[in-house]
Specification:
This protein is 30% helix and 20% strand. The protein has helices at residues 20-31, 44-50, 74-81; strands at 8-12, 36-40, 53-56, 68-71. Strands 1-2 form a two-stranded parallel sheet. The chain has a two-stranded antiparallel ribbon with strand order 3-4.
Length: 90
Amino acid sequence: MLFNPPNFLVLDEPTNHLDLATKEMLVDALKDFEGSMIFVSHDRMFLRGLGSRVLELGAKSGTGPPSHCYPGSYVEYVQKLGHEAPGIYS
């Protein structure tokens, strides 16, 4: 990996089990990453620090809203919806 570094990262809940200082270091390191990345996270600090687009997936049952891609940051996503991502308190 060091000889031929990746240009695409897939991260699944990368901040689970990290303390606050380590989370901040991870966000700073990933901001310097020159490739593309896709990640799944429920960590709002992580989303605010890195997200440049939000993909909201539809409900499993098919009765909820369809999947939708929001261009812009997580902060813009929250402003557009007027609330945090669904599912956090329900």
